[in-house]
Amino acid sequence: MKNVTDSFLYLGHWPSAGSFGFNTDILATNPINLSVVLGVLIFFGKGVLSDLLDNRKQRILNTIRNSEELRGGAIEQLEKARARLRKVEIEAEQFRVNGYSDIEQEKLNLINSTYKTLEQLENYKNETIHFEQQRAINQVRQRIFQQALQGALGTLNSCLNNELHLRTISANIGMFGAMKEITD
């Protein structure tokens, strides 16, 4: 420290018209040089440094502003996507509910159609049975009638002789003659 103060004291003793020289004392010249360099840098570099810092500040503010705008746009797009998702979920739920009700309706229609078909088949079966019963009854009647007729013819043939036969024919001819006179 003593060297620093000594160097300042020696400055006062220099003759004004003296020679110019270099001070080789490093400890004495460094603070002076540093203060001069720092003074020059502060004086001339203050504006440049201020401009650099202002430019950097503006870029940071612009980046923040752009980020905020992008964030706002992203939030808006997110809200739109959420709204579309809710809408699609509601539509999907409606389709699911409607699909289930359509399936239930189709199921009921199929059951009703099956019952109607079964009723028709039951009716056809009953009609077929009734028809077959009537046909069987008619066949039995025809056979009974044929057998009765054959039995009656057999009885008539065994009981009828020629004379009775001629009398029956004459009576029938008389009836036809009387009918002819009535119609004329």
Automatic annotation (TrEMBL):
GO terms for molecular function: proton-transporting ATP synthase activity, rotational mechanism. It is a single-pass membrane protein. Keywords: ATP synthesis, CF(0), Chloroplast, Coiled coil, Hydrogen ion transport, Ion transport, Membrane, Plastid, Thylakoid, Transmembrane, Transmembrane helix, Transport. It is found in: Membrane; Plastid, Chloroplast thylakoid membrane. Belongs to the ATPase B chain family. F(1)F(0) ATP synthase produces ATP from ADP in the presence of a proton or sodium gradient. F-type ATPases consist of two structural domains, F(1) containing the extramembraneous catalytic core and F(0) containing the membrane proton channel, linked together by a central stalk and a peripheral stalk. During catalysis, ATP synthesis in the catalytic domain of F(1) is coupled via a rotary mechanism of the central stalk subunits to proton translocation. This is ATP synthase subunit b, chloroplastic. The gene is atpF.
